[in-house]
Amino acid sequence: MGHREQLMAGAKRCLEERGFARTTSRDIAAAANAPLGTINYHYGSKERLLNAALLETLDEWSEKVRSGSAEPVAGSGAGARVESMWTRVVESETTDRPLLVASAEALAQAERSAEVRQQLAEAFEGARTTLAADLHGIEGAEDGEVARAVGSVHMALIAGLTQQWLVDPERAPSAREVATGLRRIAQALESDS
């Protein structure tokens, strides 16, 4: 493993252990067992390395919580796939808490960094269509507007659920409560149309 890969692994470890805001270049270099100067050589800055590490880690997290969403689930249908994904999201709120805290810190950084904002915006846009396809079989190429809308709702729910779990895990909703709420909202919207 070269310095570039070592730095990425070290930055991921620092995000988990120290968070986005408290990680220094020296922390990353020490965790990577790499010379301090290699951060700028390979990534241009500590911030770019942390951004890349965070985005890679969030991609891995997203893959984990979405895994199996496109596969048939006992009970079949989109409702079962959605509830199965929400179960994995809620489980990850406990198992991946340090990563979710680091991602919340990174979102705050986006206000002051056009680069962070752009990287996160691109990741969000890709996640929208992926969620719509995995959970509902809606392909962006077929119906881009609907895919984007459906994926955006799921992303908003994930962000809101994560905030609730970070602030008040004792009273944050379960996967079943999220699914129940979504069903009730869908019923109300259908009766209004």
- The SSE string, one letter per element, is HHHHHHHHH
Count of helical segments? 9
What fraction, in percent, of the residue positions are helical? Answer: over 70%
Basic shape: elongated
Helix-strand makeup class: mainly alpha
Biggest sheet features: none
User: What amount of the residues lies in strands?
Assistant: under 5%
Termini Cα gap: 58 Å
- Uncertain spans: none
Mean pLDDT: 87
Number of strands: 0
How many whole angstroms does the radius of gyration measure?
Answer: 19 Å
Summarize the structure in words:
It is elongated and about 60 Å long. Helix content is 77%, strand content 0%. The N and C termini lie far apart (58 Å). It contains nine helices and no strands. It is mostly helical and 193 residues long. The longest helix is centred in the last third of the chain and has 24 residues, at 144-167. α5 runs parallel beside α8 (144-167) and α5 crosses α9 (175-192).
In brief, what are we looking at here?
With 193 residues, this protein is mostly helical.
Topology:
Blueprint (H helix, E strand, L loop, with lengths): L2 H16 L6 H8 L5 H6 L2 H21 L10 H19 L1 H13 L4 H23 L7 H24 L7 H18 L1
Helix pairs in contact: 1-2, 1-4, 4-5, 4-6, 4-7, 5-8, 5-9, 7-8
List keywords for this structure.
193 residues; mainly alpha; 9 helices; 77% helix
